Amino acid sequence: MKSTFIRILVVATTMMVANGFAVAAEKEKTDVGKWEYDHKCAVCHGKNGKGDGGVTGILKKAPANLTVLAKNNGGVFPYDRVSAAIDGRATVIGHGDRDMPIWGSVYRSETVPAAGDYYFDTPYPYDMEMYGRTRILALIDYLNRIQEK
User: Fold this and answer.
1) Residue 75: phi, psi to the nearest 5?
2) Does residue 143 contact residue 80 with C-beta atoms inside 8 Å?
3) What is the Rg, in whole angstroms, of the alpha carbon atoms belonging to the chain?
4) How many C-beta atoms surround the C-beta of residue 66 within 10 A?
């Protein structure tokens, strides 16, 4: 009886420790802005945001180097301009006739559970407009973090 209790205790402790490591590792992987960038932007703008993505050879105009947005704006990250370009409120001259996808309308039209891609729970039901804005804000935050100093 005593050895059974000790085995159960050892197994339970091992599972709790392993679960703690898994949760910590999962939290480290969940950078929502980076996830958005990697899944929506990197194909054109490149893994590091320098404008050297895998499809640059088939685009009419080269994608912008997203790491110099602040540098090209007097050292201030142009939040409003970036937000408008991502959500579709502004046409980007370098994109011609809107070659860059308008992510605001894409996010608002999705019907998947909010944040399902990010491995954390979100109350259901949810507001798709708010969900879209949150994803865009996370992406903008990531772009701000990759600016050249």
Assistant:
1) 85, 5
2) no
3) 21
4) 20
